[in-house]
Amino acid sequence: MTDVPEPVRKCANLLKGTRSDTEKFAALFMVTKLVKGKDCNSAGKKLLFEAIGFPFLKKLLVSKDLPNDCPPLVYKSVALSILTCFCQEEELATHKDIIDAIPTLLEIVEQADDEDYEDNLIVVSEAYSCLKSIASYEPGQQALLATGAIPKMSQIYSAQSFQTDEALHLIVLLVNKFGVASWPEDPTAFHALIQRIALDMETDHTDRKYELCRILADILITCRREIVINSLEGQIWPESLFKGCGDILKAKIGPKQRDPALHLIATTLQVLGIQWAFMDEQKQFFLQLLQLAAIEVRMQMDEKKLETTFKQADLMTCCFLILEQCIEYMATDQLDLEPKEKQTTYTALKGAFNQVMAVLTRVSQDKIRDSANPRDKNFVFAIVRVLSAWLAQETTAMRPAIYKILPFMLKVANESFHDLKTWRAGPKEGAAPNDVLRIMLPALCHFAVEDEARRVLFTHKQDEVLLESLELYFSIAHWKRPPIPRAERLKRMNEPDPVPTPEQQAEMKVARSAIVALCNILMNFTVLEPKRAEDGATFASLLKFVVENLPELKDTPDNLVIHGNLAVLGLLLLKQQSKKVKQNDFSICRYIQATIRFLWDAYNIDESNDPTALVVSIAYKGYWSDLSELWFLGMQTMCGVLPLVPWLSEFALESGWAEGIVKTLKKVKIGTLPANVKSAYEDFLSQLVDVNGDVVAVLKKADALRVCRNHRMMDLGKKLFGD
């Protein structure tokens, strides 16, 4: 203790020698002077902390049983003044006694509006100072989260109490640390807080408006998105944000104002989706936003040094997020644009993406491509991601340049996918890594049918990564209840079956759309690269994956489209690999049953208003735009598979499908059967007759003669009854 200043040592000895609380309290006035002095170092503060004893300080903060010669607030004020100084030292700010005092400090700031505190607001200020110091370190942050500090601070700010900015800064500090875990399941506090800040941002016309933009963006990005989306009814903060951001877009602003505004808009779009940009049911906000983001990208990436561009990574990533959502929305054809607006929009996007391409090309040739700095790495991910979103829609432009940069794009996308796979296999700490490969899938659908692009994909073994990706996304979409430890099974026998959380349901939805895109790519590979599909190890593994997993897929409406895609992908692979298929292979048998179910259930008469009309079944109707082509391809491919694997025809007979088709068509009114449906059924039944001698008798018994006459199925008629 030689480094403790003499006055501090004397004071500590005096405190230790006091015989009553009154004596100790009197000595505290000397402590307040000492701890604020420049001579009181860390060792001195620690010595004084031990000499006073925390129980005494806590007594001054909470006890009603204190000497009457001073008002209770004076005791509190002195105790807090000393604590504030102690909390500036990490060793003391993380001390168990001070951590345990967090509820007391929170209570003081929660009561800032009480009459007791009106005359001594310094007490509230000191309490905030203590909390701020405690929140600077991990143990304090964890304790603040556990004691519900974030919802409490949210209530304080939304009630606009004294010194609420202190509460706001504490919230931002904690949500930046804990992300989604910051918020309870009940979104009330979150909505109240965002509503208050959004209203302040909308109505403030000083520089504070832009500070609030940054704060809003920091808080919004941490919300429990599914819970917030499902509880938006009656909330007016989306409108406040829309109006506030709309005013900014119309104003003449510089980078200091533009950057936080773009940051907030990008975050809001991530949370609320692109529909938020149409809150006034007009397209002006959307078009202004698209133009602003495109111009910003072009300016920041225009022939600058890569280091300069990378310094703007955060701003550029926000612009990319905006452009990505705008492009995806425009692809849905819901936006009604005048010819001039179309031209202006396309010119802005093309200008931006020419620059993005140029920068990515330079990155691919620069040492920065191998940077281990997470910020640099994430920016490269963001560039590839936004370019992929553009290439999903722009399917003809810049092809030679694209084929050159494609290997680097694949390398980046695959790295991001493997990061995600590793993260999902572990304890899932922090936010999920950026999955660039998933965003690239729609663009890969186009590349899969282009000879040069497909050559690049196979040269870089992309088929192997796509199979890995299919396996991962299937494991997410095919959600299973977590296993119950054996010791707890009896105890939990009567518990209701768990269901996926809102976050898991959102993940499952994303996984399903990824599976559809992957199947699309892999089907094109199978058809356009028949030799690879026949002999390649990856394609053998792919067929194995499909036949083993399709029968396991839960029979739910949400899974219908992926069921259809996997079924048809399996048929295409089966056709190519028919020589390797062993008769009565159990997994193939189960797969064919699941595939027949998909093809059989698509059409019926029972659900039609007219008992003589064949209609798409109710279960399929809502998804028919995604299933129609698949169904016809599935029927056509089944016809191609039967001659190669004739024993599969047994399933069409034993299941009753072949007979069921004839019985259904028998009821259909003459002249009403659509030509393409007629062809699909006739070709299939004709193929069955060719490969299986037992089929003729079954079809004749079901009255195939009448069906052939009614619907002019000449080819089938000849096969069954001769000329």
UniProtKB/TrEMBL annotation:
Protein name: Neurochondrin homolog
Coiled coil: none
Organism (species): Drosophila ananassae
GO biological process, alphabetically ordered: muscle system process; neuron projection development; regulation of neuronal synaptic plasticity
Signal peptide annotation: none
InterPro entries tied to this protein: ARM-like, ARM-type_fold, Neurochondrin
Name of the gene encoding the protein in the UniProt record: Dana\GF18365
Membership in a protein family: Belongs to the neurochondrin family.
Superkingdom of the organism of origin: Eukaryota
One Gene Ontology cellular component annotation held by this UniProt entry: dendrite
